[in-house]
Prior knowledge:
- The chain is 40% helix and 13% strand.
- The chain is built from nine helices and six strands, in the order H-H-H-E-H-H-H-E-H-E-H-E-E-E-H.
- The protein has a six-stranded mixed sheet, covered by helices on one side.
- Strand 5 (199-204) and strand 6 (207-212) form a beta hairpin.
Amino acid sequence: MSKELTEVQAKLANSYQEFLHERRAPAWMASDEATKLSAPFLIDPSAVDAYFKASCKIMFVGQETKGWCGKLQALLKETDLMEILFARYAKALVSPGRSSFLQMRRRMEVELADGIAGSVVWNNLFKMDVNRGKNRTRNARDYSDALTEFSADLFRLEFDLLRPKVVIFACSVTHDGMIRKVFDKELLEGSIPLVKRELWYFRYRGSHCFRTFHPAVARWKKGAAVKAHYETIIDAVRQIKAGKYRDWEGEPSANSAAVGGSMPQV
């Protein structure tokens, strides 16, 4: 195990400890609105081992979970809450089940990350989902400012520690606002809406970033478009790995945002 990997794992675990133990007391976690929240989604530090073995570090990002280790307030009472959350993450990596998202993540591992199990890191923009009642969406977007800030802070920390070469946001245009909140627009560059509202490319601090549909969208609509966009992304990542990728043939786009400029509506 390399010194870099050991340090990243330790920093990740210690940071989670700080976020959950030192922030256990904030009013929003004890408020009525928090009674609807799931336990937080955390990356298992031990799973990062496979990520560092891959020839290309890839982070595959979803929206939020759909029920995760029970409820937030109940989990915060557990003395071994970190172990519970890490074990849940590790289990999902090896058992994707019927999840189209996790199946796509596994495809990324096979085609882009040397086939190493667990090598494509799974992350989510929102760290908790919202139980709004039976048969209702668990979408966390716009639920509360506190949840949004907590999620953005934690995602930013994970990104800074893991420094992925490629980030694929499988969360649709509806979550562009959260992406803008997570990333400092002063450091964003090369923004190109490749397909309006469907496929967006940009670079951030050396990472190549793509945003497209969640894979599950293919079950209800735009099946051909979802497939085509993932093929485009996979082909682009292959070029990135080979050192041949030049931001879509190297041609500057009229839609590209200058560093420090505003991100286009895509």
